[in-house]
Amino acid sequence: MDKMKIIGGDRLRGTIKVSGAKNSAVALIPAAILADSPVTIEGLPDISDVHILGSLIEEIGGSFSFDGKEAVIDPTNMVSMPLPNGKVKKLRASYYLMGAMLGRFKKAVVGLPGGCHLGPRPIDQHIKGFEALGATVTNEQGAIYLRAEELRGARIFLDVVSVGATINIMLAAVRAKGRTIIENAAKEPEIIDVATLLSNMGAKIKGAGTDVIRIDGVEKLSGCRHAIIPDRIEAGTYMIAAAATNSEVVVDNVIPQHVESLTAKLREMGVRVETGEDQILVCGTDVLKAVDVKTLVYPGFPTDLQQPFTALLTKANGTSVVTDTIYSARFKHVDELRRMNANVKVEGRSAIVTGPVKLQGAKVKASDLRAGAALVIAGLMAEGVTEITGVEHIDRGYSNLVEKLSDIGATIWREKMTDEEIEQVKNA
Ligand code: EPU
Fold first, then answer.
1. 357 CA to centre of ligand 1 in angstroms
2. Which of 47, 148, 166, 303 has CA 20 to 30 A from 235's CA?
3. What is the structure's pLDDT at 423?
4. What distance in angstroms lies between residue 161's CA and the mean position of ligand 1's atoms?
5. Whether the CB of 303 sits within 6 Å of ligand 1
6. CB of 23 closer than 6 A to ligand 1?
7. Which amino acids are annotated as binding site for UDP-N-acetyl-alpha-D-glucosamine, given as ranges?
8. Does the CB atom of residue 126 touch ligand 1 within 6 A?
9. Atom of ligand 1 at shortest distance to CA of 126?
10. Do residues 241 and 8 lie in contact, with contact meaning Cβ atoms separated by under 8 Å?
11. Distance between Cα 247 and ligand 1 center (Å)
12. Which residue minimizes the CA distance to atom 36 of ligand 1?
């Protein structure tokens, strides 16, 4: 187990390249199950969620070869093996194995997913969708059992706008008989990316990226080659890091439209942001204005950037209110930021940040992926040394974070934790 150390105060300069989107990757890999020949995905991020999904693909008889950039998934010899808890509990997106296996085999047994603890994260809308398509769904001892004689297209109105439910229903519906219509669908770019892969495999999908998606089921899907979209949350994290350290950084391999809500907020704070075709230049400033932020579904401000953005706001002049309308308890980073001298408190679904303060290096713990990103940003801003444990959360979603930040001038490195330190963190 590693910990991360940062000596804050460096100004960053140069170009940082964004990897493929984690939240696409974790759906594209299961989507390959639906094909009858190998699927190649270019630009997959080298993160632990991808490796875990790869090994789950192998557990059900598929092959997964990944060189850190490109993966080939061969679904030819797959069977619908039960995947109870174990590895599926390590990530949220293992729920996509339900939709994909149901679509291909008409049956699946998959343990309830794990992932970051951000408040209640039910999957009732996924199940509602599978049932509408004709599946019987039961929950037995922490695993979801799905079975259908046949899947038939249906009209499904999502009660909650859900990225996961939209993709999962799409995965099951592409091989159902007849037409499925998903209404009140999520519109995140990752949904378009998954629909593009499925379409390249032979699926008939219209409307991905809008709130009504129409899918006409087909009998057969075949392998293809697909290039993943860049990770808008990773891009946003580095944009925030540049603003937080008063630096001049080019974020490369980004679709500027995907991060417009962040760009607008940074500009409101006084940061200069210039967008090109697939690059964004962020030039920090000494004096930042406080702003209010409310997370919303796409294209609103993403909940996944709420925690990193809160770290930046500690430096802004005045009081900022950050409200998370998507998750009720995505504030575990706040106590850690306070350890670093931040003036932040949580009231209901909002974090109230008063600044500016000079953060001080401290020993802190990442409780989840984006809390980890927030602490890295805080560490870059702080005076002295910040030591972050819980690095395995960061590894779930950021490919080569230490190397990428070091390359643009940050003093950041990893160290192995001693047995005593591991024990202390476990007992904390
Ligand atoms: N919800 C329900 N019922 C459902 C599904 C969702 O009530 O059946 C609720 C959730 O509890 C939440 C809201 O709807 O309050 C939105 O959840 P959504 O289903 O959209 O989230 P998700 O698909 O589980 C994905 C990302 C998250 C990201 C959210 C929101 C993946 C693997 N995860 O989760 O990413 O926060 O969408 O944009 O795609 C992250 O990357 O750090 C991360 C947590």
1. 32
2. 166
3. 83
4. 9
5. yes
6. yes
7. 92, 121-125, 304, 326
8. yes
9. 8
10. no
11. 32
12. 304
For residue 119, give the ligand 1 atom closest to its CA. Answer: 11
Query: Which residue type sits at 185?
Result: A
pTM to 2 decimal places: 0.97
- Distance CA(69)–CA(46), nearest Å, equals 7
Check residue 202 and give its pLDDT.
98
> Residue 74: left (phi > 0), alpha (psi -120 to 50), or beta?
beta
Q: Tokens for 47?
A: 């993160």
- pLDDT computed for residue 268 by the predictor: 98
**Mutate which of 49, 121, 156 to test ligand 1's pocket (most atoms within 8 Å of Cβ)?**
121
Per-residue pLDDT 10s for the chain (428 aa) are 999 999 999 999 999 999 999 999 999 999 999 999 999 999 999 999 999 999 999 999 999 999 999 999 999 999 988 887 778 888 889 999 999 999 999 999 999 887 778 777 889 999 999 999 999 999 998 899 999 999 999 999 999 999 999 999 999 999 999 999 999 999 999 999 999 999 999 999 999 999 999 999 999 999 999 999 999 999 999 999 999 999 999 999 999 999 999 999 999 999 999 999 999 999 999 999 999 999 999 999 999 999 999 999 999 999 999 999 999 899 999 999 999 999 999 999 999 999 999 999 999 999 999 999 999 999 999 999 999 999 999 999 999 999 999 999 999 999 999 888 888 877 77
Residues recorded for the chain:
428
| Residues designated catalytic | 116
Cβ of residue 168 lying under 6 Å from some atom of ligand 1: no
Report the separation in Å between the CA atom of 155 and the middle of ligand 1, taken as the mean of its atom positions: 22
Separation of alpha carbons 226 and 193, rounded Å? 9
Residues contributing to the annotated binding site for phosphoenolpyruvate: 22-23
* Cβ 159 under 6 angstroms from ligand 1: no
Atom in ligand 1 nearest the alpha carbon of residue 186: 20
Residue 427 pLDDT: 75
